[in-house]
Amino acid sequence: MTGRVVVVTGGTRGIGLGLARELLARDCRVVLCGRSEESVRGALARLDAGDRATGVPADVTSRASLQALWDHAVATYGRVDVWINNAGVSAPRRPLTEVAPETVESVFATNTFGAANGSVVALAGMQRQGSGWIWNMEGFGSTGQVQAGMATYGASKRAVTYLTETLVKEVRGSDVKVGLLSPGIVATDLLVDDYAGDPEAFEKARKIFNILGDRVETVTPWLAERLLRAQKSGTRVAWLTTPKAMSRFLTAGLRKRDIFADATPGAA
Ligand SMILES: NC(=O)c1ccc[n+]([C@@H]2O[C@H](COP(=O)([O-])OP(=O)(O)OC[C@H]3O[C@@H](n4cnc5c(N)ncnc54)[C@H](OP(=O)(O)O)[C@@H]3O)[C@@H](O)[C@H]2O)c1
Predict the structure, then answer these.
(1) In a domain? residue 263
(2) If you write DSSP's letter for every residue of 22-88 in order, what string do you get?
(3) Which residue range(s) make up the domain with 240?
(4) Which of 109, 140, 152, 242 lies 20 to 30 Å from 163 when distance is taken between CA atoms?
(5) Is residue 261 part of a domain?
């Protein structure tokens, strides 16, 4: 696994930044993006990896922007071995009729079209190189969970899973492989911002999240290790499995946790 070049979209915060850190710790070189110069510069400073990490601002809603990210990675490190479509945004937990149309558009543009754009750019580049791995990030809704208030985010993520499973079929017979990452419930800006303007709902959800959820630094080493070791196209790397969730509920009384100790809804 030494020296692999990994692109992480949305690598400036949360799970993406955690993955970047863990990939660097496993001898990879990392290329990341976020939407602004400032966020990219800040993430690179936090990673403090010298010439083993680089980044440029890129917006996943634009295919041209992701092509520029690919080109930057290849100009810097010569190739891309792994491309992770991680960038994502959430929507407020509200009935669909109360979600602003621009929010619906932005969630689909980022989560669904962003994963499609990244997959197309990476697939074309990897086919030219002769090999590579593309990973797409699942989320609530991906495996069919349905909950009131989650129409926008859930539908955008269910589409990501469909898109990825289709790609797995489309790359069959080539040396490009495609997989799914499922991080479970992770204390990040994205999760907290679902509850922006509704601290009461956040307090209720917090109890469940403290049972089922984890911090970035717990989940990302596990994801990084498995995505680097994966062999078979179509692999799904899932942190929060049903047996794990059941065992968390059974042992909840024995454990006191607050994975959101530093979080304020809407503060990001
Ligand atoms: N947290 C969870 O519980 C959870 C659970 C399941 C799945 N996920 C998925 O995991 C992924 C990461 O989520 P997270 O919780 O780490 O979120 P986060 O902390 O809010 O980070 C989101 C990242 O995406 C970037 N981003 C957003 N829009 C972008 C765009 N248009 N172009 C480029 N970058 C963009 C942000 O960068 P800038 O702000 O610098 O642009 C940031 O780096 C998402 O796909 C999410 O759906 C999260």
Answers:
(1) no
(2) HHHHTT-EEEEE-SSHHHHHHHHHHH--GGGEEE----TT-HHHHHHHHHHHHHHHS--SEEEE---
(3) 5-254
(4) 242
(5) no
Strands 53-55 and 176-182: unpaired
Q: Which of 22, 121, 186, 190 to mutate to test the pocket of ligand 1 (most atoms within 8 A of CB)?
A: 190
Average confidence (pLDDT) over 115-119: 98
For residue 1, the CA-to-ligand 1 centroid distance in Å is: 26
Q: Which of 89, 182, 193 to mutate to test the pocket of ligand 1 (most atoms within 8 A of CB)?
A: 89
Residue nearest to atom 1 of ligand 1 (CA): 186
Question: What is the CATH number for 174?
Answer: 3.40.50.720
Query: Distance (Å, rounded) from C-alpha 169 to C-alpha 228?
Result: 21
At residue 91, the 3 state secondary structure works out as coil
| Catalytic hit among 77, 153, 162, 195 | 153
**Number of structural domains in the chain:** 1
Residue 264 has pLDDT above 80, yes or no: no
Judge contact between 140 and 97, C-beta under 8 A: no
Residue 110 per-residue DSSP state: I
Mean pLDDT calculated for residue range 206-221: 96
- Whether 259 is in a domain gets the answer no
Q: Known catalytic residue: 77?
A: no
* 87-105 pLDDT per residue, tens: 999 999 999 999 999 999 9
Query: Which residues line ligand 1 at a C-beta cut-off of 6 Å?
Result: 9-10, 12-16, 33-36, 39, 58-61, 86-89, 110, 137, 139, 183, 185-186, 188-191
Nearest CA to ligand 1 atom 9: 139
